Amino acid sequence: MRQEDILVDNFGRTVNYIRISVTDRCDFRCVYCMDEEMQFVPRAKLLSLEEIAFIARAVTELGVGKIRITGGEPLIRRNIIKLFRDIGQLDGLDELVLTTNGSQLPKLAGELKDAGVKRINISLDSLDHDKFRRLTRVGELDKVLAGIDAAMETGFEKIKINSVILKNRNDDEVPDLVEFASTRGMDISFIEEMPLGVIDEHDRAEAYYSSDEIKADLERHYTLLPTTETTGGPSRYYRIVETGTRVGFISPHSHNFCDSCNRVRLTCEGRLLLCLGQEHSVDLRQVIRSHPGDMDRLKQALLRSMDIKPKGHEFDLSAKPVIFRHMNMTGG
Ligand code: SAM
Ligand code: SF4
Predict the structure, then answer these.
(1) Cα–Cα distances in angstroms (integers) from residue 67 to residues 201, 237, 293, 295, in the given order
(2) Does ligand 2 have an atom closer than 6 angstroms to the CB of 204?
(3) What is the pLDDT of residues 95-128, one digit of tens each?
(4) Beta carbon of 100 within 6 Å of any ligand 1 atom
(5) Would you say the C-alpha torsion 54, 283, 101, 254 has a positive or negative sign?
(6) How much is the pLDDT for 289?
(7) Does ligand 1 have an atom closer than 6 angstroms to the CB of 24?
(8) Nearest ligand to residue 68 Cα
(9) Which numbered ligand comes closest to the C-alpha of 25?
């Protein structure tokens, strides 16, 4: 591939990874992700599955080798398996991965694997039914546990648990979550809460629980060895000597990961976000709807978007929110 045909920003970072939010809707209402009352994007403004597949083809032709399908809850979008099948067949794609809350996996795990999904991330913040319900507002722990079982039976190459830890809400569950992952041969990543979107349920600064605190909690039970392994995302990884489990830390506050950023995001309305914590974006829906089927024009828009990819972001939990889009729009 010629150098001018790949996505490189003004800081020399090559973009080879895209996260695509296929819907902003969800069957859960996690307290850090959404407000209780949410306005969702009207159908006419949503990219169709065909439009998403077209953009996915364009980015893979520009050197993107990894696509993560996310949301909202991606698996509640109607006919979503067709999108996985279409993307799974793209030349040049090395990895098609998924982030899900797990609730639909009992139904869809087999079809996802057949479509080419090799690795999946399943979000799980608590193993206690009541706490799980309070954190997700409406979610049922048993459904997610059944989803995890279904994924294990299906035999994906890798299953990773993602946990957002909030002080005095689920910080006491860190060792139990690690044990849950270890006994099932899964990896686990802990995520610091990010100030995306306005929420009323808690004060994000008060709920902040740092990766270093989580690591210290774990070191009371296990020996953690740093590893240079990477999955091409923002996690820093450690191995637990006693169990072999890989534990990741996604630390947007305490260990900013912007210098090595290799990714962009596509919202369900077709906005290409150049940075998780900034509003720089390009309206790809406008590009493809005003010039349907024009692959060259779309690729030019993608290549030009690199000029506005910002150097990075700084989150400040004590300040007023500056990013008004919630994580379900952003595509975590
Ligand atoms: N619904 C799917 C799920 O929950 O896995 C996919 C979308 S969700 C937005 C993707 C990831 O973002 C989840 O692991 C979730 O815990 C995380 N997340 C949501 N809001 C967040 C926030 N404000 N800060 C940090 N992580 C967040
Ligand atoms: Fe839904 Fe995922 Fe957001 Fe929870 S984190 S509300 S499961 S999109």
Answers:
(1) 32, 21, 21, 19
(2) no
(3) 999 999 999 999 999 999 999 999 999 999 999 9
(4) yes
(5) positive
(6) 97
(7) no
(8) 1
(9) 2
Residues with Cβ within 8 Å of 242's Cβ and at least 6 positions away in sequence, in order, are 222, 223
Side chain identity at residue 180, one-letter code: F
The rounded distance, in Å, linking the Cα atoms of 81 and 331 is 18
Question: What six digits make up the tokens of 218?
Answer: 């774990």
Closest C-alpha to ligand 1, atom 10? 332
Q: Answer yes or no: pTM beyond 0.85.
A: yes
- The residue type at 226: P
- Strand (E) or helix (H) holding 87: helix 80-88
CA dist 155 and 190 (Å) reads 23
Structure tokens at 259: 């210098």
User: What are the helix and strand counts (H, E) for the chain?
Assistant: 10, 12
Q: CA angle 222-205-246, nearest 5°?
A: 25
Angle at 249 between CA 245 and CA 253, to 5 degrees: 170
Q: What is the 3-state secondary structure (H, E, C) of 140-206?
A: CHHHHHHHHHHHHHHCCCEEEEEEECCCCCCHHHHHHHHHHHHHCCCEEEEECCCCECCCCCCCCCC
pLDDT averaged over every residue in the chain: 93
- Residue nearest atom 19 of ligand 1, based on CA coordinates: 33
* Amino acid identity at 120: I
- Decide: 26 in ligand 2 pocket, CB within 6 A: yes
